[in-house]
Design goal:
By secondary structure, the chain is α+β, with helices and mostly antiparallel strands. The protein has helices at residues 10-13, 19-35, 48-64, 67-72, 130-156, 160-164, 236-241, 295-304; strands spanning 6-8, 38-42, 87-91, 98-104, 173-179, 190-195, 201-206, 213-216, 222-224, 230-234, 251-255, 261-268, 275-276, 293-294, 312-313. β8 (213-216) and β9 form a beta hairpin. The chain binds 2-oxoglutaric acid and fe (ii) ion.
Length: 317
């Protein structure tokens, strides 16, 4: 079985590294992005304490939150006075059921009636350290995201400012996901249906559960991507930037073990008002697909017409 590449990002981050050392890391990322769209990233410099911290608050939330607590931070649609995007949601779908709490970069002003994604984050009150731990993690991940963007620019041979100017106010998103253990009584599968991510780059952190996340490889086979450091994958906006040379690869979660699973994807995405258009020259007639898009439009469409997020069910109180 083909496995996904593992890339040591350490040399890229070291101040004393030469341009040559950095270019070697960038070349590995470039290859992984062209070949599979998924790679493991180690040597990323995010402290173990933060990785453990974010996994712990995720686990504790799903183990302990009551229906009332979930209801108090439930995502609301625009017609219910919400913003369609931020907060707790429970997805019950044939292709995979799960629970999630979604957070996004704050927007100012955030006034009612909210446009999609433009409301305030809804932080769980318990565990009490949820918000400070998540905010410390987000801070660190934003800076890792910027460093990986610099590596992408080097690998692609474009000015780093060309990419950085479109992500310097990255409209990031953090999802805290919970998957129930298999219950022989319920037909609903625990998981997420197949999809591509719609932003630039996803940094996925999971617990130790194996045989859950699957990635579609070049030969059309679903391969398991088991836990290990960060698992990075390319979103549709990076595919757009590279005219499809970098793949936004289909993936899904089919969680069939008896114990619950948690995962925490951090989506490093463009500035809301960035226009994302191909940076690489056209190679032929396959052009029309990559004509550029305003990220705000991509985000709004993706959140309002979710494929794998449907249907949202009301939280029982
Ligand atoms: O839970 C996982 O392993 C993957 C989640 C995912 O693909 C997503 O939220 O976009
Ligand atoms: Fe995903």
């Amino acid at each position: 079985m083909a496995t996904l590449p593992v890339i040591d990002f350490g040399p890229f981050l070291l101040p004393q590294s030469s341009l040559e050392d950095k270019a070697a890391v960038a070349a590995q990322i470039d290859r992984a992005c062209r070949e599979s769209g998924f790679f493991y990233l180690r040597g990323h410099g995010v402290p173990q304490e933060l990785l453990d911290g974010i996994r712990n608050i995720a686990r504790t939330f799903f183990q302990t939150a009551t229906a009332e607590e979930k209801q108090s931070i439930a995502l609301k649609r625009s017609d219910e006075g919400g913003d369609n995007a931020r907060g707790y949601r429970k997805v019950v779908a044939e292709k995979g059921s799960h629970e999630a709490v979604d957070f996004y970069r704050s927007v100012v002003p955030s006034t009612r009636p909210y446009k999609t994604g433009m409301g305030p984050n809804q932080w769980p009150k318990s565990p009490a350290n949820f918000r400070p731990v998540a905010e410390a993690y987000i801070d660190r991940m934003q800076s890792l995201g910027l460093s990986v963007i610099e590596a992408l620019a080097l690998g692609l041979g474009v000015e780093s400012q060309t990419l950085l100017s479109r992500v310097d106010e990255a409209f990031w998103s953090l999802s805290v996901l919970g998957y129930e253990g298999r219950d022989p009584q319920t037909p609903a599968k625990s998981g997420i249906g197949e999809h591509t991510d719609f932003g630039i780059l996803t940094f996925l952190l999971t617990d130790q559960t194996r045989n859950a996340l699957q990635v579609l490889n070049k030969d059309g086979q679903w391969i398991y991507a088991d836990p290990g450091c960060f698992l990075c994958n390319i979103g549709d906006m990076l595919a757009e930037w590279t005219r499809g040379a970098y793949k936004s690869t289909l993936h899904r979660v089919v969680h069939s073990s008896a114990t619950p699973r948690i995962s925490v994807p951090f989506f490093f995405d463009p500035n809301l008002d960035a226009f994302i258009e191909p940076l690489l020259p056209a190679s032929g007639e396959d052009d029309i697909e990559y004509s550029g898009i305003k990220y705000r439009q991509k985000f709004t469409e993706s959140v309002e017409k979710p494929l794998w997020r449907e249907p949202l069910v009301a939280v029982e109180s």
